[in-house]
């Protein structure tokens, strides 16, 4: 028997034990409960799962959740079951599929997690007609768009699957969707434009600074000297990681490398040393950071341009998760962009336009004489104030120095010719 909750606040407390909603969660949940299809763009860690799990326990029937990775599904399943939510996964590795199908048909499931491939299977579509569906939740919804960074053709089959149930609302969720990708997700999944909810991207305690790279070693050493707390320096290649880690180690600070080419044991040891440390610096490729829980990182530096604004936001977002002041410093040079444009030729054709737009957006962030935070937040669909007072451009005022002027001219030349 399913418990009945008086309202969302009561269910939130009873099922999840949380005192309040965060950010736009309440707004998303309200729309879903009113059977209004929605695309919610919320950053990683903002609590997207709750926006379908809570309605799932309140609504009659089963919420069908589409998720791209079996490992992710099993994590979600564990967490949901721990909260007393009646949940199951239906994947090729599950041995209890018959039981799960029975539970779905009997209305004994709040959540049914499936991979997008299921959508193309006739017998799965038939199964859906045998139970009662409360909601379709599409996690990692950017996978439906070729504009996104992780296109999964199977996501395109979700629309016809869902169209067979016109009365069932749809909730698409993603952390990373620029303007193009968002519009595409809405269209591909049949969600009305007014169903878009974006929020929660601002990290006010992070001070953003983006500087021309003239003497990276000196610039990074100065950063280390100014910031005694733990920090991460991202470098584009394993060789550069090794080299920088060696050079910066001479300053007396503990500096360790991290990249996928290191022995798994060394990587694990360096990572635990970093997590435990109050002053260590990790020089790393982008392989470092996912799933690392260290709230007191005081700076994140990029020794070269990251590959997109999304990547920049995600990587800098590892700074200052405790809410205390932190800095994000990017060093860039024109050849970062020249190289990115050269790599375009190797990108599959259908992804090239999206990739080019991503490079251009990053160039705008680097070049802007205006507030970096405002540009970042607008990129993610928010409507921020024009100035933040906590980025280099807001602090150092709009003047553009000689060095940048030279760099800007170079960059414009690259735009015109497409190469250096
Ligand atoms: P996302 O999918 O957006 O990255 P998750 O759904 O995995 O985020 O949630 C991230 C964490 O936030 C989880 O540990 C979750 O339990 C927690 N969380 C979600 N909503 C709330 C809330 N309203 N109050 C407190 N913690 C929350
Ligand atoms: Mg999630």
Provide the gyration radius in Å: 23 Å
Instruction: Name the strands of the widest sheet in spatial order.
Output: 3-4-2-5-6-1-7
Number of helices: 17
- Total number of strands: 13
Note the overall shape. globular
Structural class: alpha/beta
Account of the 3D structure:
- It contains 17 helices and 13 strands.
- It has helices at 8-16, 25-33, 49-58, 70-82, 97-105, 122-130, 158-163, 179-189, 216-226, 238-249, 264-276, 309-316, 334-344, 349-367, 372-379, 392-396, 402-417; strands spanning 38-41, 62-66, 87-90, 111-114, 133-138, 170-174, 196-198, 206-212, 231-234, 255-258, 281-284, 299-302, 326-332.
- The strands form two sheets. Strands 3-4-2-5-6-1-7 form a seven-stranded parallel sheet, sandwiched between helices. Strands 8-13-12-9-11-10 form a six-stranded parallel sheet, with helices on both faces.
- Strand 5, helix 7 and strand 6 form a beta-alpha-beta unit.
- It starts with 7 loop residues before the first helix and ends with a helix.
- The relative contact order is 0.10.
- The mean pLDDT is 91.
- The site of adenosine-5'-diphosphate has 12 residues, from helix 3.
- Belongs to the helicase family. RecQ subfamily.
- It comes from Novosphingobium hassiacum.
- One of its GO terms (cellular component) is cytoplasm.
């Amino acid at each position: 028997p399913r418990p009945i909750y008086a309202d969302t606040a009561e269910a939130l407390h009873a099922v999840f034990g949380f005192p309040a909603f965060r950010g736009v969660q309440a707004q998303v949940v309200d729309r879903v409960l009113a059977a209004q299809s929605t695309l919610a763009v919320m950053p990683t860690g903002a609590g997207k799962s709750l926006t379908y799990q809570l309605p799932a326990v309140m609504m009659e029937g089963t919420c069908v959740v589409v998720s791209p990775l079996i490992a992710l599904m099993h994590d979600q399943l564990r967490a949901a079951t721990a909260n007393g939510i009646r949940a199951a996964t239906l994947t090729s590795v599950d041995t209890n599929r018959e039981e799960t199908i029975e539970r779905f048909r009997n209305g004994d499931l709040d959540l049914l997690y499936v991979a997008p491939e299921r959508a193309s299977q006739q017998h799965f579509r038939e199964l859906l007609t045998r139970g009662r569906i409360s909601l379709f939740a599409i996690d990692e919804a950017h996978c439906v768009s070729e504009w996104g960074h992780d296109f999964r053709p199977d996501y395109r089959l979700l629309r016809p699957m869902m169209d067979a149930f016109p009365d069932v609302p749809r909730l698409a969720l993603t952390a990373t969707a620029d303007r193009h990708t968002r519009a595409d997700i809405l269209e591909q999944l049949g969600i009305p434009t007014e169903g878009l909810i974006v929020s929660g991207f601002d990290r006010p305690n992070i001070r953003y600074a983006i500087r021309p790279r003239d003497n990276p070693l000196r610039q990074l050493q100065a950063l280390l000297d100014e910031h005694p707390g733990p920090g991460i320096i991202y470098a584009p290649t394993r060789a550069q990681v090794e080299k920088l880690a060696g050079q910066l180690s001479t300053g007396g600070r503990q500096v360790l490398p991290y990249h996928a080419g290191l022995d798994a044991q060394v990587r694990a040891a360096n990572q635990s040393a970093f997590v435990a440390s109050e002053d260590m610096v990790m020089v790393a490729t982008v392989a470092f950071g996912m799933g690392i829980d260290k709230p007191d990182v005081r700076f994140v530096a990029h020794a070269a341009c990251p590959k997109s604004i999304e990547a920049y936001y995600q990587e800098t977002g590892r700074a200052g998760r405790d809410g205390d002041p932190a800095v994000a410093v990017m060093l860039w040079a024109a050849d970062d962009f020249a190289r990115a444009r050269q790599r375009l030729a190797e990108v599959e054709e259908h992804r090239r336009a999206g990739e080019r737009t991503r490079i251009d957006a990053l160039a705008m962030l680097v070049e802007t004489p205006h507030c970096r935070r405002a540009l970042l937040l607008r990129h993610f669909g928010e409507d921020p104030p024009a100035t933040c007072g906590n980025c280099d451009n807001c602090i150092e005022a709009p003047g553009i120095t000689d060095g940048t002027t030279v760099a800007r001219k170079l960059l414009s030349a690259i735009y015109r010719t497409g190469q250096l």
